[in-house]
Amino acid sequence: MTTAAGLQTVVTVPARFRGPEGTANGGWIAGTVSEALNGARHGSAVEVTLHAPTPLETPLDLRQLANTATLTRGDELLVEAIDVAEPLDAPAFVPFGDAAHAERGFPGLAGHAFPGCFVCGLRAPGDGLRIFPGPVEGTDLVAAGWRVPMTVTDEDGVVPDAVIWAALDCATGWAHFAPGEFALLGRLTARVHRRVYPGGTYSVVARATGREGRKLFGESAIYEVDGTLVAAAKATWIAPA
């Protein structure tokens, strides 16, 4: 619907797209709100701040203004997205074979705080994305080979930006985490350059870029098999007190 405050719709996050149990995966919900702001325009960056966990299977209000999109539950602000004009540095390309090899060192295999996560959880093939970033030998990078399920397309057969943002999300955390460690996504800024195709193979690469108190910083990227950059992101995570 269109209101005096802009475009308003009601959205509900299916339980499939969870991160921590009972709440939405941070990257997926960030990408969903980004799509409301950015529409089909690729090439510009969007900064999404997660103010509170987004509940599953609950009607939520998504409002779009000229330069802002917000997700709320009643009067509570959950997510806010804004257009930003800033470059995003992408971690170096890792060939798909090397990225897939790095998965053997994925810390989550030894201890995972959120094993049901849509992105990095130990879900059945085709249900979750099963992106398992592990260290790339001789570098400061983590990487995984992403085999895109056929089950993540929209009604037009397109992999939506929400799924691309989700793929960019968790790797930036695993660039920091040891087995069993976790943090919650606080902010994700991403730019999508190209489409992702169902059934395709891609490299997901990330690196830690610093820490400040409880805040963890990282960068990530998705690459096609020939090294073409698909998308890039930077993230801020908040570790538990």
Automatic annotation (TrEMBL):
Domain of life, per lineage: Bacteria
InterPro entries documented for this protein: HotDog_dom_sf
Species for this entry: Planomonospora sphaerica
CDD domains reported in the protein's UniProt record: hot_dog (cd03440)
Name of this chain's protein: Thioesterase
